[in-house]
Structures are given as C-alpha cells and as structure tokens.
Amino acid sequence: MEKGRRGWRRGSEKRTAGRKRAARKRERAARKRSRAAMKTSRAARNRERAARNRERAAKERKRAAKERKRAAREKKGSERENGQQNRERDGRGENEDSENERMNEVRDKYRAAKMKNSDERKTDKRE
Q1: Domains identified in the chain, total number
Q2: Of 4, 36, 57, 114, which is most buried, counting CB atoms within 10 Å of its CB?
Q3: Which helix (H) or strand (E) holds 8?
Q4: 120 lies in some domain
Q5: Taking 70 as the threshold, does the pLDDT of residue 93 lie above it?
Q6: What are the Basic residues biased-composition ranges (predicted)?
C-alpha cells in the first residue's frame, strides 16, 4: 500500500487508476457531445448540410473539369493524327521538316535585309 495521487492504493490499482480516470473523462466528453448534438438547432443542421453539399459540388466541378481536359487532350491527339494522315494523302507526309526549313530561310532573308538597312542607317548618320 502506498499513497499515490488518488489516495491510498495498491500497486495494480495505482496503475489502473489513471486509465480509469481517462476513460471516465472520455465518456463524459462523449456524453457532452451527444447532448450538444441533440441540442443543435435545425438551422445549424441545415448549415452543415449546405456545407457538405458545397463540398460535394466543388468535387463534382473539379471532376468535370478534369474530364473536359482529358477529352480535349484526346481530341487534340486525334486531330494531330488526322493532320498527319491528310498530309500523307496530299503527298507532303514527311515534308513538314522541309517546310520548316523554308520558313527559316525566309526568316533569315528578312533578318539579313533588316540588318543591312540598319547598317546603312548608321553609316548615313555618321556622314
């Protein structure tokens, strides 16, 4: 026998005393919660329901957006394939690279002309 925090107890009782106290505390809290739940007003319940509905709607919107994006991605992929098929049909299948090269050449030509003009302007200013 020894005096613990809870008065005179045997060893085993001292160990269980804390556990029992914690259990009682939990039960009391649970009772309090259930009483509070019974007391909640209709307005509060409606608010909770509305909040849940909002969450659900938001999730649904998010899911729909993902679905739309996925569909758009797939559509884009199929369009790309169609474009490739059309080019092949028209006999310009692998010519896309040469087309790009031609565009680059045109761009370079214009760039060179621009540089030449700017150089001429600079020389004019010097004179």
Answers
A1: 1
A2: 4
A3: strand 7-9
A4: no
A5: no
A6: 17-36, 59-73
CA 72 to chain centre: 18
For residue 15, tell me if it sits in a domain: yes
Identify whether 24 is part of a domain: yes
Where residue 102 falls (left for φ over 0; alpha for ψ -120 to 50; beta otherwise) is alpha
Separation CA 51–CA 95 (nearest Å): 58
Supply 75's token pair: 């559509």
pTM assigned to the model:
0.32
* Residue 37 vs residues 3, 44, 97, 125: alpha-carbon distances, Å: 41, 10, 71, 88
Cα separation, 99 vs 92, in Å, equals 10
- Is residue 6 a part of any domain in this protein? yes
Backbone angles phi, psi at 94, to 5 degrees: -95, 10
CA 23, 27, 28, 30 torsion-angle sign: positive
pLDDT digits (tens, 9 = 90+) for 33-65: 887 777 778 888 889 999 999 999 999 999 999
On whether the CB atoms of residues 11 and 2 are closer than 8 A, the answer is yes
